[in-house]
Amino acid sequence: MKTTDYINRDLNYDGSLTIEEYVSRRRDFVPGRFDGKVAIVTGGTSGIGFSAAQELGREGARLAITGRNPETGKKAVEELEKEGIEVIYFAGDMKDSAFCKRIADETYLKYGRIDCLVNNAFLFIMHGLDAEDKDWDDAFFTGPVGYARMIQNVVPYMEKNGGGSIVNVSSISGHIAQTNFWTYSMMKGAVGQLTKCAALDLARMNIRVNSISPATIFTRITSQALYEDDRKARRARMKAEGQGYMLNRAGEPVECASTILFLLSDDASYVTGSDYLVDGGFISLGSQGSLQKVYRDREKYKLEYSDNIMKGLSAYEDEPY
């Protein structure tokens, strides 16, 4: 499929698409870009993590992936190995410091080096005033602390190679206010600070540290309803998920993976301590731009929006477009 086929594709989702066609993007990988390199991807058995691992493997990297569910891990390994990708899998919880250390130690023992780390494993714990001690504990130690521990564990091995690259998967939730998201947004905000501090401390070791902040991405968790709903409901959900984005749609895992690979590669040799928004223009649009965009889309492009969104347009009814 041509690149132009992917730009704002089917803004109203009027066609009779299947779920595979809704979430079907592919990229042209760069053969050999990671030849000889070893990459660890936490949470690499599904979603953004699996896509990052798959694309790294296609470009020559040998892999270590982690995940809490052995069955999901087995399926991920089988799929990767079908493509001739060398991979080992670790089943466990990133909250466990001993497990985090074992990942790094056994990956080095297996492959003799570690060049890249993708910190991706993170729990979707979303609570506000109702948050309990276990929620805070799980969100904190699985998320930003798990990321920090993995960085601590891989750095000695990266130093032996003369350097390396790390990408932390954050979120737009670390940049904005969201209702009842205290436990999630706080921890994603902490990832941003970890990225900056680690980048400073590791620069002299020739280890770059960056992060990406995705918006809504259709992963196994977020796209589950698309598989369960009927065609009409799927279309309505896809349209709803795209409201508020310049590109009129939610994203797909491979679109995060491509940015991760860029940051891990030598193409980003002068990039460190940075956060890349993989958000379809969500943050840049902002609240006022979002309302204006709805008015423009409705008037100029005849797109449909929900009644709740239309109620917020009164201030912009006379805006010229």
Write a brief caption for the model.
The protein has 321 residues and is of the alpha/beta class. Helix content is 45%, strand content 12%.
Features:
single chain; 321 residues; alpha/beta; Rossmann fold; seven-stranded parallel sheet; 7 strands; 12% strand; disordered N terminus; disordered C terminus
Draw up the topology in text:
Layout: H1 19-22, E1 38-41, H2 47-58, E2 62-67, H3 70-82, E3 87-91, H4 97-111, E4 116-119, H5 133-142, H6 144-161, E5 164-169, H7 182-202, E6 207-214, H8 224-228, H9 231-242, H10 253-264, E7 275-278, H11 282-300, H12 307-310
Parallel strand pairs: 1-2, 1-4, 2-3, 4-5, 5-6, 6-7
Order of helices and strands: HEHEHEHEHHEHEHHHEHH
How far is it from the N-terminal to the C-terminal residue, by CA?
Answer: 32 Å
User: What is the third-level CATH name, the topology of the domain at 31-217 and 252-280?
Assistant: Rossmann fold
* Alpha plus pi helix count: 12
Main beta sheet: strand number and arrangement? 7 strands, parallel
- Give start-end ranges of low-pLDDT stretches: 1-7, 315-321
- Outline: globular
Strand fraction: 5-15%
Rg, nearest Å: 20 Å
Query: Which structural class do you get from the secondary structure elements?
Result: alpha/beta
CATH architecture of the domain at 31-217 and 252-280: 3-Layer(aba) Sandwich
What percent of residues adopt helix (DSSP H or I)? Answer: 40-55%
User: Which strand order do you get reading across the main beta sheet?
Assistant: 3-2-1-4-5-6-7
CATH class (first level) name of the domain at 31-217 and 252-280? Alpha Beta
The quaternary state of the protein chains shown equals single chain
In CATH, what is the homologous superfamily of the domain at 31-217 and 252-280? NAD(P)-binding Rossmann-like Domain
* pLDDT averaged residue by residue: 88
Tally of extended strands? 7
